[in-house]
Specification:
287 residues; alpha/beta; two-stranded antiparallel ribbon; 12 strands; globular
C-alpha cells in the first residue's frame, strides 16, 4: 500500500479558480510506480490529485492490455471515482532493426490494434507516443512518419486522436533536416498531432511560440513542464506560450513534473497552483 498524499484543505480548494488541467501520472511515479511496474494501490493518490484541483489524468503505465495493473474498465472507474476524467495515455512500440530495414509494419500494427482497443475501453480521448529512437537516416525517419500516420488513422477510426510527444533530441538534424520539423511536414494532420513538451523544446534551443506560428494547429496538447516545479526556474516563457495557444491549436494542457524540490505532493500541488493563479491560463482549451 503506498502512502497517501495529503489532501488540500477545503478553504484553499474553494479559493482556486476552476480550470481544466490534467496531470501526467509519471509525476507521481514515486508513489504509484510507472511503466507497468506498479505494485501499489493508487486510489488514495488519485483521490488526492482530484481534491487538489486536477481534472483529468494522462497514464504512463500501459502494458499487456492494462493500466497500472488494472483492466481498462477498472482504471477508468478508479479515475472517475476520484472526480477526474481519463484523458490520454503514453504508449508505444519501437520498430526493430529488422522492421526498419524491411519497412514491414505488419507485426507492429498487430500490437497497436490491441493497444488501441485497450485505450478505447479505458475511455481515452488521446493516445500519445512519448518518444522514439534517434534515427540515422531520412529513410528511417520517413518510415516512422508513415508508421505514425497508420497508427493515427486506426486511432481515428476508433474515436481517438493520436499524437507524438517530443523531448530535446528531436531538434537535432538527420541528414541536414531538423528531425521534429521533418516529422511535422511528413505526417498527416488528420492523423497525427504533436504534444509539445514546452520545457524540452526550450532545452532543444527552439522557441515554442515560433513553432506554433510556423505550424499552426498542429500542437493539440501541451506538456506543461519546468526544470522542477512549474514556474520556478524562469527558463520557460509560459506567458507567451499560453497567449499563443490558440495559434498552436491547443485543446488540452497536461502537467508533468520530472524533478522535485520538495516531496511529490508539494511539488505537484505547487505546479497546479501556479497554473490556477496565472491570469494567462484559460479555464479551458477544449474545442
Amino acid at each position: 500500500m503506498c502512502a497517501a498524499i495529503a489532501m488540500p484543505d477545503a478553504a484553499s480548494a474553494k479559493k482556486a479558480p476552476e480550470k481544466q488541467i490534467a496531470i501526467q501520472l509519471y509525476s507521481v511515479r514515486d508513489l504509484i510506480g510507472s511503466f507497468g511496474q506498479n505494485q501499489h494501490d493508487y486510489t488514495d493518490v488519485l483521490q488526492a490529485l482530484g481534491e487538489m484541483g486536477y481534472t483529468a489524468v494522462e497514464a504512463a503505465s500501459y502494458g499487456d492490455g492494462k493500466f497500472y495493473g488494472k483492466t481498462p474498465e477498472a482504471f477508468k472507474a478508479d479515475v472517475e471515482a476520484a472526480g477526474m476524467e481519463v484523458l490520454s495515455s503514453h504508449a508505444t512500440r519501437f520498430l526493430s532493426a529488422e522492421e526498419l530495414a524491411s519497412g514491414d509494419l505488419t507485426e507492429a500494427m498487430k500490437w497497436w490494434d490491441e493497444c488501441i482497443a485497450a485505450h478505447k475501453a479505458a475511455g481515452m480521448k488521446y493516445l500519445v507516443t512519448p518518444s522514439m529512437p534517434m534515427l540515422k537516416t531520412l529513410r528511417e525517419l520517413k518510415l516512422y512518419c508513415d508508421y505514425f500516420n497508420e497508427i493515427g488513422k486506426r486511432c481515428l477510426e476508433n474515436g481517438m486522436q493520436y499524437g507524438y510527444h517530443n523531448h530535446a533530441f528531436e531538434f537535432q538534424k538527420v541528414e541536414g533536416e531538423p528531425m521534429l520539423e521533418y516529422m511535422i511536414q511528413h505526417t498527416d494532420p488528420r492523423y497525427v498531432f504533436y504534444q509539445m513538451d514546452v520545457y524540452w523544446t526550450v532545452m532543444g534551443q527552439a522557441s515554442p511560440v515560433d513553432l506554433f506560428h510556423k505550424y499552426p494547429g498542429r500542437f493539440k496538447m501541451l506538456h506543461i513542464k519546468d526544470l522542477r516545479e512549474i514556474g520556478q526556474s524562469g527558463m520557460v516563457g509560459f506567458d507567451a506560450i499560453f497567449r499563443n495557444a490558440d495559434v498552436a491549436g491547443v485543446e488540452q494542457i497536461v502537467v508533468e513534473v520530472e524533478q522535485y524540490s520538495y516531496d511529490v505532493e508539494k511539488s505537484v500541488r505547487l505546479s497546479l497552483e501556479y497554473l490556477l493563479e496565472a491570469p494567462f491560463v484559460k479555464a479551458s482549451y477544449s474545442k
